[in-house]
Amino acid sequence: MSDWIPLWLHKLGSPPVFYRFAGALRPWMLALALLLGAVALYGGLVLAPADYQQGDAYRIIFIHVPSAWMSLFIYGVMAVASFIALVWRIKLAEVVAMESAPVGACFTFITLVTGSLWGKPMWGTWWTWDARLTSELVLLFLYLGVIGLYHAFEDRRQGARAAAFLAIVGIINVPIVHFSVNWWNTLHQGSTVRILGPSKMSGDMLWPLLTMMAATKFYYLASLFGRIRADLLAMESGKDWVRQIAAREEAR
Amino acid sequence: MGGYAAYVWPAYAVFFVVLAADFFAPALRRRRNLRELRARLARQSARQQRSASS
């Protein structure tokens, strides 16, 4: 590859090096996720006041919105890794893409279920075929499609390439989910938190939300690293470094 | 929870249960793969010993 990519990045792409790297970072990512998550829950469930319109039902926001952000963010990561995997045939990029899909599917599922539990008391219905809800459901099906396609092939790398292609095509749905509340008249409320300009939310509700967002980001890294480690061991089971790990874990 | 407990707590329960399942699944997969690999290696070395002694 080109000269401008530093050597350590090349090395990080090698399975045994990344296995150790992910193993060293994973406990820290998990600790940060748990710590930030606990702080966010305390802020959201104890410190933040009830909403003047929605009462305490709005507290679902502290898990619903971070999960929804993660469902889109992880899809983006998966699509970029898929692109890298298809163009440069980097094994690690394939693994990142394919192991992101189950985590993303989990967050999408959580988004849909918590949204439904929020919709019932506020809108009077569990589900409606509105633009935001429908496009998020399509996102779940895209994740499930990627997972299913990956496992449908006898050869893992062939499956990963087919699924990576689907992941890239499906990226079209990500802006549709994000802008659906602006483009169409929906029952779902518009965005409250903005990157540009002030958020339409009071500070004592906003900080737990942003803290939970950080917690879910770290959780994703922790989960992804664990999944990549399991996957690398399975993919490289014929290699010497995996045999050494197998022997070492038996001794314990 | 101001009368909304029946909606708020299940939402939080789903969040934690789904993420816990997601987190522990690969650890189980990793252990199973390593066990199968050890079994395969043990079979291989047994076969090699048999063919060496005969």
Structure description:
The complex is a heterodimer of chains A (252) and B (54). With 252 residues, chain A is mainly alpha-helical. Chain A has helices at residues 7-12, 15-47, 61-88, 91-123, 131-151, 156-170, 173-183, 203-235, 240-251. In chain A, 76% of the residues lie in helices and 0% in strands. The mean pLDDT of chain A is 91. Chain B has one domain. Chain B is rod-shaped and about 80 Å long. Classes of the chains: A mainly alpha (252), B mainly alpha (54). At the A-B interface, α3, α4, α8 and α9 of A face α1 of B.
Query: How many distinct domains of chain A?
Result: 1
Shape of chain A: globular
What is the total tally of β strands of chain A? 0
Named CATH topology of chain A:
Four Helix Bundle (Hemerythrin (Met), subunit A)
Radius of gyration of chain B: 24 Å
| Largest sheet properties of chain A | none
Share of β-strand residues of chain A: under 5%
Number of helices of chain A: 9
Low-confidence stretches of chain A: none
CATH architecture of chain A: Up-down Bundle
- Helix count of chain B equals 1
H and E order of chain A: HHHHHHHHH
The ordered H/E elements of chain B are H
Instruction: Give average pLDDT of chain B, whole number.
Output: 89
Beta-strand portion of chain B reads under 5%
Helix content of chain B: over 70%
Largest interface, with counts of residues having CB < 8 Å to the other chain, equals: A-B, 39 and 27 residues
- The stretches of 5 or more residues of chain B where confidence is low (pLDDT under 50) are none
Please give the radius of gyration of chain A in angstroms: 20 Å
Distance between the termini of chain B: 76 Å
Distance N terminus to C terminus of chain A?
40 Å
